[in-house]
Design goal:
Largest sheet: 9 strands, mixed
Helix content: 40-55%
Number of strands: 22
Oligomer: single chain
Mean pLDDT: 81
Distance between the termini: 63 Å
Number of helices: 19
Shape: globular
Radius of gyration: 26 Å
Length: about 700
């Protein structure tokens, strides 16, 4: 082997080892933070008796100490590094997908004879795979049917030696209280409600959290729960990503500390995690308890998953959508559960497994699949997924027509590719802690399912080019500073805007450094784009510089979470047109109405535009001062709070400059949607030049 090849190989090993050391350090830091959360000076506990009233002196809320409390942890925040600064194994995953997808096209160029034998063989393998999936799915449907009328309570009494208790944990942020209450009610309706410790976890920045806690306490104090615990997740803990993982991690740790359970008893407590919009069948807890006892309480080896059936109002949808819903259920019944690939949405596990696996990693977003990989590494074994013999009903995330069904499948495929590639990176780094056969079998199943079956339509990139001489050699500044929440779509947004600049002859500069906002620096730009910024991102002097820049006749573009920025700056409120007020807990399909089809950013859009996205509600008192471009039909989704007129995009001439805002693009694949990218281009063109047509 040549010396250059040896050097390259050693370099890759060094880089990979450094990545693993960084992840290990991060996980060690989360353990330190977990210990800090137990300190009395950081957390206040009080009574959880369901008959007690919440008041200022005594309540059942576990919450942070006053804001002036300082915790010295020795941990500092690490700035985000660009992808080019480190080797990421998700590149290998994407490479594998790129090789598999066009395989029938490139293999004949290597050898026609090889292609003649390989292509039919591969087709045969695919037929065999789908046959196995179908057989396993039918088998599991039969199991569901056989257990449909089972009297779980009688079975539990026969098997139970030590009482099995349950923690049901719901993570909440800005969801409507009625939605949260609906989810908790479905838990209160359980036939075994007296076994349940109900944990409801809010965020420190949740609006009116005290009132929400009081409402939930009053409504469910007599529901029959063993205990109700409400927690408030502190803002700004080190090495956390705001989201369900960090919220669930904190809520579960606090609940365990509150109930003061011994390690030996943790195998007798099952934890069920869910979102704020979950609806459980009444026998979910009973079926879970029976299944756990029937399998001799496999506390450290098994996670439990209820099948998801996507047949909510399915009979009113198109034939294609119905088939898609059935196919997704088929894949869960025939692939995800039988091959132990991963859980989804609502799943359950023993408290012993959670404790040994150091609970939930707060630095990731996907709690289900990351937990599975992490816990395999901790327990040194392959974690089995066992099916709970009751189904959970879920709405289809599919299009309502054949055309939108195709679009939705493309979006789902892109989303699966992005998420699967990140998971693959984490798995490769942690694989050395998993037994070799277990790691190989899980990794192989993961690649086949996500890399081959689901992601083959993911690599399409929209090209949007509209020549405009007035844009030649112009510049825009894209500002991406966030405090604290960093949207995962930001890197995709940066790439899309840079590509638009290349295609339309304007330069794009990107920064997350607020000190760059000086009069001298800003005067070179035609417009400034706030790309999903969050929090108070500019100090007073920077605000004045930006205001002077804008008032000189320049432009501003606000994208998505730009509405979740600078709440205390009234001028920014006027510039943007309003502030973020909240959103439903999950992304949904909805119908957008294009109010103005003559404007440069919307003239290419259909009159009705169906999209899958996160839908904001706004604090707005000046609808009459902005020119609304797009509204959302609140009848097409749940969680809207504005009624008939609910704007999603608008523009205005404000205080000497031009302002454009679009709420769309929470998810990463928005920037692969040519309709949205062209919509964004039109907004940038308006901000830069003042063109409206």
């Amino acid at each position: 082997m040549s010396s250059s090849k040896i050097l390259q190989k050693n370099f890759l090993r060094q880089i990979s080892a450094e990545i693993e050391r960084k992840i290990d350090r991060l996980e060690q830091q989360t353990q330190i933070v977990g210990g800090i959360l137990q300190w009395p000076k950081f957390t206040r506990f009080s009574s959880s008796d369901r008959n007690e009233k919440i008041n200022q002196d005594k309540d059942n809320i576990i919450e942070t100490s006053p804001p002036h409390t300082i915790i010295e942890t020795g941990i500092t925040h690490h700035e985000m590094k660009g992808g080019s600064q480190r080797l990421r194994w998700n590149l290998l995953f994407n490479l594998l997908v790129w090789l598999v997808v066009p395989f029938p096209f490139w293999i004949p160029f290597i050898s026609n004879k090889v292609a003649l034998y390989m292509l039919p063989s591969i087709q045969g393998v695919f037929v065999f795979m789908w046959t196995i999936i179908a057989i396993l799915a039918v088998k599991n449907v039969f199991i569901l049917r056989m257990n449909h009328s089972r009297k779980y309570k009688e079975n539990i009494n026969t098997l139970e030696k030590t009482r099995i208790r349950h923690i049901v944990a719901v993570s909440c942020y800005k969801e409507p209280i009625e939605l949260i209450a609906t989810t908790v009610q479905s838990v209160a309706d359980q036939t075994e409600v007296n076994r349940i410790i109900m944990v409801i976890s809010f965020e420190e920045k949740t609006p009116e959290k005290k009132k929400k806690c009081q409402y939930l306490q009053d409504r469910f104090k007599d529901a029959g729960f063993e205990q109700i615990i409400l927690t408030v997740h502190p803002y700004g803990l080190p090495n956390e990503i705001p989201g369900k993982c960090s919220n669930s991690n904190y809520g579960l740790r606090m609940a365990v500390n509150k109930i003061n359970v011994a390690d030996d008893d943790m195998k007798n407590i099952l934890v069920t995690t869910c979102d704020a919009d979950s609806k459980f069948p009444p026998n979910y807890i009973a079926a879970l308890t029976w299944k756990y006892l029937q399998e001799n309480q496999p506390a450290l080896t098994t996670i439990y998953q209820s099948p998801l059936f996507y047949n909510w109002k399915l009979d009113s949808l198109s034939f294609i959508t119905r088939v898609t819903g059935l196919l997704r259920s088929l894949l869960m019944l025939g692939a995800l559960i039988p091959f132990n690939i991963n859980t989804m949405s609502i799943f359950s596990y023993s408290l012993s497994l959670a404790k040994q696996g150091n609970f939930i990693h707060p630095s990731y977003q996907m709690d289900d699949i990351i937990c599975l990989i992490r816990w395999m590494g901790v327990t040194k074994r392959r974690i089995r997924i066992s099916m709970i013999p009751v189904a959970v009903i879920s709405g289809p995330t599919s299009g309502e027509t054949v055309e939108f069904e195709i679009i939705e499948w493309a979006r789902q495929a892109r989303r699966w590719t992005i998420g699967a590639a990140e998971v693959f990176h984490y798995f490769i780094i942690k694989a050395k802690h998993i037994p070799k056969m277990a790691a190989f079998s899980w990794g192989f199943a993961f690649i086949i399912y996500y890399g081959v079956l689901l992601c083959t339509a993911a690599h399409t990139t929209p090209v949007v080019k509209r020549e405009d001489a007035s844009l030649n050699q112009s510049k825009i500044l894209v500002f991406i500073k966030t405090i604290p929440y960093f949207h995962e779509s930001i890197p995709m947004g940066i790439n899309a805007i840079r590509k638009l600049g290349e295609q339309n002859q304007f330069k794009v500069h990107v920064t997350n450094v607020a000190s760059y906002f000086t009069i001298d620096n800003l005067k070179q730009y035609a417009a400034v784009v706030f790309l999903s910024t969050t929090g108070d991102v500019l100090d007073e002097s920077q605000q004045e510089s930006f205001k002077s820049f804008y008032r000189s006749g320049k432009g501003f573009v606000g994208i998505h979470a730009a509405a979740d920025t600078e709440y205390a700056w009234s001028w920014y409120n006027g510039l943007l047109g309003g502030y973020f007020a909240g959103h439903p807990s999950r992304l949904q399909n909805a119908t957008l109405n294009i109010v103005d089809q003559n404007f440069i950013a919307t003239k290419h859009l259909p009159k009705q535009w169906k999209r899958f996205d996160e839908w904001y509600n706004f604090q707005m008192t000046q609808w009459n001062k902005v020119n609304v471009l797009i509204t959302i039909d609140e009848k097409s989704y749940y969680g809207g709070e504005h009624g008939k007129i609910h704007p999603m995009s608008w523009y205005q001439n404000y205080d000497g400059g031009r302002s454009f805002y679009t709420q769309l693009s929470h998810q990463q694949d928005s920037y692969l949607d040519s309709l949205f990218v062209q919509h964004l281009l039109g907004g940038i063109q308006y901000a830069m030049t003042g063109r409206t047509k």
